[in-house]
Amino acid sequence: MLLIVLLIGCDAWAQEQPQDSSRFFGLDEVVVSANRALERKADIPQQIDVLTARSIRLQNPATMADALQHTGWVFVQKSQLGGGSPVLRGFEANKVLLVVDGVRLNNAIYRAGHLQNILSVDANSLERVEILNGAGSVLYGSDALGGVVSLFTKSPRLADSTGLEVRTSNLLRYATAAREKTAHSDFSLGWRRWATFTSLTGTDFDDLRKGTTGLPGYPGFGQVRQYAARQNGQDVLVDNGEPNRLKFTGYRQLDAVQKVLFQPRPGQRHLLNLQYSTTSQVPRFDRLQTYRNGALRYAEWNYGPQTRFLGSYQLELTRPTGLYDQLRLTPAVQAVAESRLVRDFGKQVRQENLENVRVLSTNLDLLKAVGPHELRYGAELTHNTVRSVGRGLNVATGAATPIATRYPNGATYGTAGVYASHRWEITDRLILSDGLRYSHVRVDARFDPRFFNAAYPDVRQRSSSLDGTLGLVAMLPAGLRLSAMAATGFRNPNVDDLNKTFEQLNGTLIIPNAGVRPERVVNYEAELSETVPDRLLVAVTGFVTNLRDALVVRPFATPGGRSTTVYNGQTFATVATVNTGRARIMGLSARTQVVLPVHLRLDGSITYTQGRDLTAQVPLDHIPPLFGRAALTYRHRKLTAEGSVLFNGRKRPEDHSPSGEDNLPQATPEGALRWYTLNLRTAYQLTPRWALQAGLENLLDRNYRVFASGISAPGRNLFLAVRFER
């Protein structure tokens, strides 16, 4: 198929499209995430990467996590096929803030281990993604320690004339590694004052096939030789006739976006934004492959259907007044449901923990320009309510009995913050940025005495934080640009940190600890870049992040002073989330874009990170090995073709954290091994509206597992896609 597309591309082409250098050179891009308002990327002292809809279309990612991983800028961990946890500057999960259309996704039960919540955002519905690297607490409050991933869905477009304007984008895709089948359709209807946007995507994944080459010392690594099945009311072990096909990894997903825009007059816009995402049950692959006493531990381990609903209203005013030139008000409501369905092999009772989180939030953002000064200021309020239910369901009789909940039912988590950021264009070559934010966080929870010892205290925590940032950008001669900044950040413990009860993969039990404090960071970074317009961009960024009171998992005694406890009929060693004294993360990243002759462009990125708990003198968790990407792209007239390599370095066993979050038992005896994949992608514009795409990922069928992941990566993957757009 790839050869056919390439041969077609050698035929007569339609009129050549003019090269748009902004596709390749990012410093003149306009971004929103840095200061919650439009701003030139070149004026911002903080590292920002931008993923466009055009790039997403070429990459054809199966999920949003894959879209981030394909950039080479973001490290992504996976515990199952329906997973994907972004890592920014050595921070992961609830230490990386996810924002969709200006509304924060992180909620009261975002955990510290590995998350898959970013999969609830459909990559096909996005206009762009902005990745803000480093502490972002001044603009975003709690959780933005490693950075912010801001996702912007497509918006309705008003008509330029009195008639109706219709735009649509449609996709059908099939990929072989997981027998993925995806159908997507979005369309926008625009009038002069009203416009709507609708997006629907359905995806069906079968069981994943992993790679088979590249590990001569471990020929069977990652294979599934046995799996559990239910036959005649009994659990039995079944030999897998196709061990490279990872049994029980497939799932289904449905995503929808609906927006309505009303502009009654120039300078005033009203936007209603509704989003919904749901899945089938998602098998937790690494748990299903856990052995105990030589036999499979679990007969079932599934995340139940995960749903996310977001409804927001946005008011935008752009007629200047004495208080603002621009105003944006965004109240929102979210409803999130997730569950864990677990049954031991040979047991009749399935433990079902069901969680529902309701989030109310309001954001107010204003901008005022006075001469060379720009002031951005605003406020944010959020309130989370957690409903947690536990039951034991007998799969044979259907009888249900209450069991311990994962979280205290009725727990609440709320935040309030006010911020101001300022930009001063001292000269046309020197820009100063600064900002302050005051945040207040409260957490309240009460344990159920039926399942928790009365010695566990009720949680009533209040904390405040004052954070700041200071940065400078200097435009130097010969296309050089130098930027430097310092920023503080914090993350307040949420309901998951304070109150969770959960069995870890290593067999220990996490128990509540109401005494943990907020973790805080001071981040320093500097970047030197050189730009030759329409030809070259090279940027090198270095950073140091000092952590205080970092939250880590360590052995922890129960309120009665014991190091073990009985939970759901089993005895476990106990651990808890605690504050460590000090830690440090340092790193270096480089980006390059080079336009070559004959319609070629070279892109490259590489990131190195190291981190250490300075108090315990052990490696810090979530620190990825060296990783990056290089790609050569040909774009001319109707044809686009790309060859790329994704790569990771090695992580030795002694460099893994002792907390268990790095999943060393899931790696080889030599730790996480280095790997690379070769990938090809093509797109051919058959007509102005129809396009054909094909790609071959992991061309050499490499057998590898990404650091800290519990599932092997896809093997050789051929995808075919057809697009219709107008």
Automatic annotation (TrEMBL):
One of its GO terms (cellular component) is cell outer membrane. It holds the Pfam family TonB_dep_Rec_b-barrel. Residues 272-699 form the TonB-dependent receptor-like beta-barrel domain. Coiled coil: none annotated. Residues 646-668 are annotated as: Disordered. GO terms for biological process: siderophore transmembrane transport. InterPro entries: Beta-barrel_TonB, Beta-barrel_TonB_sf, Plug_dom, Plug_dom_sf, TonB-dep_rcpt-like. Residues 41-148 form the TonB-dependent receptor plug domain. Keywords: Cell outer membrane, Membrane, Receptor, Signal, TonB box, Transmembrane, Transmembrane beta strand, Transport. It is a multi-pass membrane protein. GO terms for molecular function: siderophore uptake transmembrane transporter activity. It is found in: Cell outer membrane. Belongs to the TonB-dependent receptor family. PANTHER family: HEMOGLOBIN AND HEMOGLOBIN-HAPTOGLOBIN-BINDING PROTEIN 1-RELATED, TONB-DEPENDENT OUTER MEMBRANE RECEPTOR. This is TonB-dependent receptor. It comes from Hymenobacter lapidarius.
